[in-house]
């Protein structure tokens, strides 16, 4: 997975972090108006049958051969990348392969989808009537009889069940490639994929009709290890030391970039105009003033717990967060206000760059606290940056059921998502919805992804209809704390020429992710709001907050500088910033609602758009084409010189900002009206 191990010294699983201690991603099943069905864009399917809980509606189709044998396809079980890859032959038939067979919820997908729609849709008699974790499991866990039926079939096929997960979520099974191929109706081949020597199935999994409805998905046939990336646009990967160069502005537009840092050498104008220097980084008080206004009720998030999921755990987060809060007026952390839930061990540290994830955790924790300084923050650490560990982390969050909102600043392009894991993710998101947990995901940092992947696409899991995708803006906050403008985050870069007389275009740099998903149909809550041109899929994002690194947030973290290890502060951006900012805003809204939970926010966001008007339209280019940014060549100090560049606003690949909903900012950016909304 993208950000989108550490051995955990000084940590215990679920240890509270005292603030002064050292501790560390074609059947359309429109059920109750919420159409969230999966669509297979890569392979024609001849007949459609519902077979499992593909979190946004799974579809199963049978080929003529499968019909003859009464077998049914498991949806999205054939890796999409296989069709574009060259087989390197067949793997050894005698090789042992381990898989996970995920089981569908008891009662079937349709019933669970109906229930999610009911508890999530304002005006429904069941709106807001959420379940506890134990009630969810009592209702939807696969039964012992369903587990036995699948185990018996596999045993008859000489595939051994080696374990059954808690709540009968999945079976761990093992068998030879020959037996696996026969049991799941697939052919296996060897490939070189994502730099790895892997084996994968070249066709869809099929199962007998007698058990197909009990199986959600099968993972492990494709042995590609999917790495998750964090989505923060960091200037350098912490904890390697980084400082923002001067000059910079303490509020938007404070310092006009007419001269270089020596205040003698002039800077050229851009399109006939001098631009401001980028901000040094907004702080909590500035962000609260801009997004929350006067906040006459004094909302601070008290009584609400916000969850965060990233990989690994920073060994200095407690003191860093406390130092940052003290430095910038965000209020000290009370005892147990910041808690970390860590695994028994970390893995894949050589592959995953744990230090980069430390920076992600720092941003997420400090951004939530900046927006909602009274809320509790419960940080969950995945054991590595790989898909399975993030899925395990999400499962732990919903089963513990101790948070009301969870922010996720990680993901990957939809085409990179393993179809087998996709179904399992969706079921976890539906469980969260049933329990009243609002799941937020950063929408991505590569615009339409064309420059990054050669395919226009959205990012996953942000494209799931069961999560709220948070896009990005560039935000101007004035000297009085007011929001002077908001526009889309999308950046073209220009570097100062060698002569210092002109700005040389570099090209597209980054911007908020968005577009139309190829994985999911349009959910009913987007109908009538999202333009009809995008009615063929789930549109991303839903809302947006500040994400542009040029107008980003100042964060503080212990880093390794050339003169030693010490605390330092730097500006950061990305939709990794937007998601925790929105989580903080949502904590205030929940507090204002008497501590109620909201669950899936999207039906509320889209339903209220034209009524309560608590979401601002974000449009227009802003007062400037962009800002001038100055950076140290070595990242730390001016000894090796300075680099000057212009970072533009509102130029997000093919994505554009318009009045109302758009692919950069969704319905817009939540303002004071959002936090003052009361859940019914």
UniProtKB/TrEMBL annotation:
CDD domains assigned to the protein according to its UniProt record, in alphabetical order: Peptidases_S53, Pro-peptidase_S53
Cofactor: Ca(2+)
Peptidase S53 domain: residues covered: 281-680
GO molecular function: metal ion binding; serine-type endopeptidase activity; tripeptidyl-peptidase activity
Membrane-spanning parts: 44-63
SMART domains, A to Z: Pro-kuma_activ (SM00944)
GO biological process: one example: proteolysis
UniProt keyword annotations, A-Z: Calcium, Hydrolase, Membrane, Metal-binding, Protease, Serine protease, Transmembrane, Transmembrane helix, Zymogen
PANTHER family listed in its UniProt record: PROTEASE S8 TRIPEPTIDYL PEPTIDASE I CLN2, TRIPEPTIDYL-PEPTIDASE 1
Protein family according to the UniProt entry: Belongs to the peptidase S8 family.
Record's protein name: Serine protease
Record lineage: Bacteria, Bacillati, Actinomycetota, Actinomycetes, Propionibacteriales
């Amino acid at each position: 997975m993208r950000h989108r191990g550490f051995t955990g010294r000084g940590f215990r699983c679920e240890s509270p972090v005292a603030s002064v201690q050292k501790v560390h991603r074609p059947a359309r099943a429109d059920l109750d108006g919420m159409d969230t069905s999966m669509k297979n864009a890569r392979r024609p399917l001849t007949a459609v049958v519902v077979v499992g809980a593909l979190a946004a509606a799974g579809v199963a189709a049978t080929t003529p051969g499968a019909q003859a044998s009464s077998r049914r396809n498991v949806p999205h079980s054939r890796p999409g990348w296989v069709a574009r890859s060259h087989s390197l032959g067949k793997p050894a038939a005698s090789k042992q392969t381990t898989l996970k067979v995920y089981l569908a919820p008891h009662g079937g997908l349709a019933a669970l989808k109906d229930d999610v729609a009911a508890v999530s849709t304002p005006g429904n008699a069941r709106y807001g009537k959420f379940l506890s974790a134990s009630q969810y499991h009592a209702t939807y866990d696969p039964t012992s009889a369903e587990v036995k039926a699948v185990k018996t079939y596999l045993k008859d096929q000489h595939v051994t069940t080696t374990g059954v997960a808690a709540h009968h979520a999945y079976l761990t099974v093992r068998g030879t490639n020959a037996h696996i191929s026969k049991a799941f109706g697939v052919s296996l081949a060897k490939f070189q994929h994502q730099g790895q020597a892997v084996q994968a199935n070249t066709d869809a999994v099929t199962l007998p009709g007698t058990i197909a409805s009990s199986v959600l998905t099968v993972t492990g046939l494709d042995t590609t290890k999917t790495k998750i990336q964090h989505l923060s646009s960091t200037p350098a990967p912490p904890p390697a030391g980084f400082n923002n160069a001067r000059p910079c502005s303490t509020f938007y537009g404070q310092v006009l970039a007419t001269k270089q840092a020596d205040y003698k050498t002039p800077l050229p104008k851009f399109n006939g105009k001098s631009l401001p220097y980028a901000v040094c980084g907004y702080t909590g008080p500035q962000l609260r003033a801009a997004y929350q206004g006067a906040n006459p009720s004094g909302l601070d998030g008290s009584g609400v717990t916000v969850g965060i999921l990233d990989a690994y755990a920073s060994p200095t987060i407690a003191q860093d967060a406390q130092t940052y809060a003290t430095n910038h007026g965000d209020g000290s952390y009370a005892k147990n206000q910041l808690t970390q839930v860590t695994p028994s061990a970390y893995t894949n540290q050589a592959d995953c760059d744990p230090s980069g994830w430390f920076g992600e955790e720092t941003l997420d924790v400090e951004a939530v606290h900046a927006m909602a300084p009274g809320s509790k923050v419960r940080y969950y650490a995945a054991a590595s940056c790989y898909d399975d560990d993030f899925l395990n982390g999400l499962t732990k969050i919903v089963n513990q059921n101790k948070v009301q909102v969870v922010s996720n600043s990680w993901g990957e392009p939809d085409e990179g998502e393993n179809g087998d894991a996709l179904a399992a993710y969706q079921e976890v998101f539906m469980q969260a919805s049933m329990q009243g947990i609002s799941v937020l995901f950063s929408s991505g940092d590569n615009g339409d992804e064309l420059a990054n992947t050669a395919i226009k696409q959205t990012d996953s899991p942000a494209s799931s209809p069961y999560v709220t995708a948070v896009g990005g803006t560039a935000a101007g906050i004035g000297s009085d704390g007011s929001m002077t403008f908001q526009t889309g985050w999308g950046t073209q870069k220009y570097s100062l020429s060698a002569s210092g007389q002109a700005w040389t275009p570099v090209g597209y740099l980054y911007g908020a992710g968005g577009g139309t998903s190829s994985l999911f149909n349009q959910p009913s809550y987007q109908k009538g709001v999202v333009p009809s041109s995008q009615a063929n899929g789930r549109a991303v994002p839903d809302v947006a907050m500040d994400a542009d690194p040029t107008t980003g947030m100042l964060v503080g973290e212990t880093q390794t500088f050339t003169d030693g290890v010490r605390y330092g502060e730097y500006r950061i951006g990305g939709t990794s910033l937007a998601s925790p900012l929105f989580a903080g805003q949502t904590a205030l809204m929940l507090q204002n609602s008497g501590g109620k939970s909201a669950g899936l926010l999207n039906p509320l966001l889209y339903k209220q758009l034209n009524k309560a008007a608590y979401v601002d339209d974000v449009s227009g280019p802003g007062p400037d084409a962009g800002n001038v940014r100055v950076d140290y060549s070595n990242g730390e100090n001016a000894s090796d010189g300075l680099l000057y560049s212009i970072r533009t606003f509102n130029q997000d690949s093919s994505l554009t900002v318009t009045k109302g909903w758009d692919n950069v900012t969704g319905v817009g950016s939540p303002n004071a009206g959002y936090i003052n909304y009361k859940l019914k």
